[in-house]
Amino acid sequence: MTASASVWTISHGELFLRLVLAVLMGGAVGIEREWHNHAAGFRTHILVCLGSTTIMLLSIYGFSQFVNETNVRIDPARIAAQVVSGIGFIGAGAILRNGSVISGLTTAASIWVVAAIGLCIGAGFEYAAYCCTALLLVSLLVLNKWEKYVMRNRRNQELTIQARNTPSALGQIVTTLVEEGLQIVKVKTVHDSANTKRDAEDASFLHMHFVLAVPHPTKLMMALERIRALEFVLGIESQVRSLDIGDRAIHPVQEARGKA
After folding, report:
1. Cβ–Cβ < 8 Å for 79, 58
2. Cβ neighbours of residue 110 under 8 Å, at least 6 residues apart?
3. In CA terms, which of 20, 127, 156, 252 is 20 to 30 Å from 178?
4. For the chain (length 260 residues), average pLDDT per consecutive 10?
5. Cβ–Cβ under 8 Å, residues 53 and 119
6. Is the pTM of this model over 0.70?
7. Pair 163, 237: CB distance under 8 Å
């Protein structure tokens, strides 16, 4: 085989080494996703990186016997280019939507980047693959903790309150939250008719869902103490969230207190 055609060939040892490298780099990213219990984890990232590497190897070296054919034009990027668009189908499977709450975007992006790493490995561009893997791990591990630290006081707080449906219930709770310096981002109320003998004398219950911008945790605690002391409040459930609560089912409130 001529020297000009040698660029279209690869030894079995080099091919195997690139496939192993794809497994290691894809697994390094996947183990981080698996550790944090995300939808696409260790094996998924390995398979994506390994598959992208194999497709790139096929695209470059799989048709070397046709290089010297006069009517054949070899394009090593033609098959591999389909990975860039095709990987979106797998990434979409990692994205979950619950009402207006969307999760899994980071995992979907990591799958897309792992596919790019696999293409680099298959093309013999290992330096770019090393750098990309290192930066990806820094983004997922280090920057994730840094983001949580910086945004710790700017996260939205979800608050669910169950109360007896009185005319002034919502107004008193809103007033209490505002007086304590909490900004109401979103509020949603749901009426629930009484269905037990103990609460048969009540016309209905009122479930109030708030998304609050909390400048400091102590302000929220003070507001909760004041709200808990209101006679019509039956229970409170709070949970830290960074996204909108959207339209989702109401869970039983915690810290519930029974009233005859």
Report:
1. yes
2. 29, 33, 40, 45, 136, 140
3. 252
4. 63 93 94 82 91 92 77 79 82 66 79 93 93 93 80 71 84 86 81 52 72 79 87 77 33 40
5. yes
6. no
7. no
Q: Tell me the longest C-alpha to C-alpha distance in the chain.
A: 94
Please, what's the b/e burial string for 192-227 (b: 16 or more CB within 10 A of its CB; e: otherwise)? Answer: eeeeeeebeebeebbbbbbbbebeeeeebebbbebb
Reported in sequence order, the residue ranges of the chain that DSSP labels E, i.e. its strands, are 96-98, 101-103, 156-164, 183-193, 204-213, 233-240
49 close to 112: Cβ distance less than 8 angstroms: no
Report the alpha-carbon distance of residue 32 to residue 27 in Å, rounded. Answer: 9
Phi first, then psi, for residue 124 (nearest 5°) are 80, 15
As a CATH number, domain 156-240 is: 3.30.70.260
Which residue intervals of the chain bear CATH 3.30.70.260? Answer: 156-240
What's the burial of 125, exposed, middle or buried (CB within 10 Å: 0-12/13-18/19+)?
A: middle
